Predict the structure.
Amino acid sequence: MAKYVKREMNDLDGSGVNRAYYQMKVYRNVDFDEFVDRCTRHGGMQRSAVVGVLAHVTHELALTLADGYSVSIDGLGTFATRLGVRADKEQDGFGADEQKRNAASIEVSGISFRADRSLVSDVNGHCRLEAGGARLLHRSPYTPEERAERARRYLDENTVMRTDDYARLTGLSRTMASLELRELCKAPDSGITSRGRKSGKVYIRG
């Protein structure tokens, strides 16, 4: 039987009330071999046939997406590519003096997937849920202004600051620390800006 976890959500609408959302508790990941075993056990197919079909579908999916198409598979969902700038290149803009990126600087950064409604309905029909506990937010003992000031003081003493540093300084969860740093970088008077991308992103005085 699957379990769900009730999680606390930040007050995003200014109502002063933190609402709840629900998340499936994932016991573990089912890898390829185990998934194939489940297919042969429940579907009556030979293992070699299942492996062959999955390998062929995966290969053709990659080729079709690479040609610039999205792919919809009935009962499963729709796949599409996401593009991004290579990790060693800076993001460009639309200003007249902005450095322009050519095709060599752009790469496929991910694959998006939107599940077919019939798959969602099928999963829901087989799912029997029970409560698996609740998780509350990490609450910072500091106000937003105090957190920003602690970050500025840290940067006055250190060259750079990472998301984990800010989370440790403020008592926020890593997710909330990342979101708050993003907003600080947008504020022109925060004195904080960012450099780099993804795992190499750091925050500096600006």
